[in-house]
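Researcher: We're teaching a course module on how sequence relates to structure. For the next exercise, students receive a sequence and then see the predicted structure as tokens, so they can try to spot secondary structure elements on their own. Here is the exercise chain.
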Amino acid sequence: MLGSSPRMQTMESSLALPRMPPHDSRIPALSVVDMHTGGEPLRIVLAGCPEVAGPTLLAKRRYMRQHLDHVRQRLMLEPRGHRDMYGAVLVPSELPDAHLGVLFLHNEGYSSMCGHAVLALGRFALDFGLAPAPPTGVGEARVNIHCPCGLVAAFVECEGGRSRGRVRFHSVPAFVLATDLMVDVPDHGKVAVDIAYGGAFYAFVSAEKFGLDVCSARIRDLVDLASAVTGAVKAQFKINHPDSEDLAFLYGTILTDGKDAYSEEPTTNICVFADEQLDRSPTGSGVTARIALQYHKGLLELNQIRAFKSSATGSVFTGKALREAKCGDFKAVIVEVSGQAHYTGTASFIVEEDDPLKDGFLLR
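Model: And here is the predicted structure for the students to work with:
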């Protein structure tokens, strides 16, 4: 309450009205729903984004990068967001089985896959009527989400036709691109890293190889180290994907505790991607890739569940390899990842034409 006087009560009543502050009426307000999965944010655009043109989802991704990047900048960067904000723009899919298509946004650009976002979008799609609930309203609803990497199936626990927090998804074929790849990391020397794909490519290396404990080291030190590894891999190794050049890029580096052998205890990791962006969750597509890596090395069997813990927040995802598959000539696996997604709020963002920072900025 603002106060108990009549004037204060009138002010409180006036402020409660759904009215927009002064803004440039030629620029539509960007309406969003905010969620998080394991602490990692997701800002879902409801309205205000211009039409994203293109006959396919990958074409739409290219179009948005070339023509609508101001939407990403305004929502992800300060002052409306922050350097670690993550977003999703919903678009029509050309796939007949998809309930929705999605473009992923971050501080540098556009990802090919995002597991924490898929977990949140499963709930969102059910609650906002983009996918049907089970006939009885109880059980699991299947939500087919077309990501730039391909079609991903999310399974949402529901009760009374509404979602509950727990969601799991089945990945696109995940595979290992390279193991024990020697890269020269500036100020650290040569080190062996693994590269695996879980809808996006990641470099994997134990933080202990650099004298750091991923569970207790300073976040800044881990971010600097992971960024150095990413830069070294990009400079010294060419990433290829058998299906599309749009998918052939290293998204980031995941530093682990080195505990890759199967255990019922969680293994801890931290992911740094894009422009030194820090994932607060265990990283859904990273878990997918890490499961594929462990299976490839014979450290994990099919349907053997592993838990993955974020060193940033302590949140946990679980994962398992469901079945073998192929991606081009690569032996691959379909991975199931489970986690908990939550709503945090809604917002409408506006632009004033004379605002010199209207398109956002990124502090280092």
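Model: If you want an answer key for the exercise: The helical segments are 6-15, 57-67, 69-76, 115-127, 219-236, 284-296. The mean pLDDT is 94.
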